Hints:
Blueprint: E1 2-11, E2 18-28, E3 33-37, H1 44-51, E4 59-64, E5 67-68, H2 74-84, E6 85-89, H3 100-111, H4 117-122, H5 138-150, E7 156-160, H6 168-185, E8 188-193, H7 196-199, E9 204-209, E10 212-218
Parallel strand pairs: 3-8, 3-9, 6-7, 7-8
Antiparallel strand pairs: 1-2, 1-4, 4-5, 9-10
Amino acid sequence: MIDVRKITKFYGNGKNRFQVLKEISFEIQNGDFAVILGASGSGKSTLLNVVSGLEYPDSGEIIYDGKNIANLSEHSLTEFRKENVGFIFQQYYLLPNMNIDKNVKMGADLAGNKDYKAIIEAVGLGEKMKQYPSELSGGEQQRVAVARALAKKPKVLFLDEPTGALDEQTGRQVLDYICKLQKKYHFTIIMVTHNQNIAEMANTVIKINSGKILERYTNTMQKTAYEIGW
């Protein structure tokens, strides 16, 4: 379980100092699909960065199965991320001089995963392992990013607007792959989005605005990527 307790986060100094997160608290169960929903500037991406261990909070606790990562040293926090979390962003961040196989292997090597090619097969790119990012469509590149993140065998997968740069058809396809892989590998999903329709796919929805939680609710029925509006 992830237990977030009264998280605050400030940016800037002096007169330019402003509070981005304002005593945010929530819990996410292991294996959950949670969406953090909010408009641009609401603080949702900062919240993802803090909860995932990319940034420290200024105060509060972030507890993973009893361990408060907000108190870890930079080295220990890096090790925590390496062993527990995966990231998928709107931008693909693939290495252009490496083919699909080697891009995904980078993630696999962090976890000593020698069976990473099964992940490439699972995202539908088994026949394109030797191709380079420049030879792929945007949707295919995002699927490589998904495979690279999951090759680490993360316990929690963090996604920041993963379909933001994709057209509707490709976006639905990528979301569908992610959900199918979650059912197979049983990791937790925490996704940031401004898209209310995508929130209908989640089990848990946390609505945020101006650095505060406005509402937290559970969808009684989760829609698939092909059932939601766009």
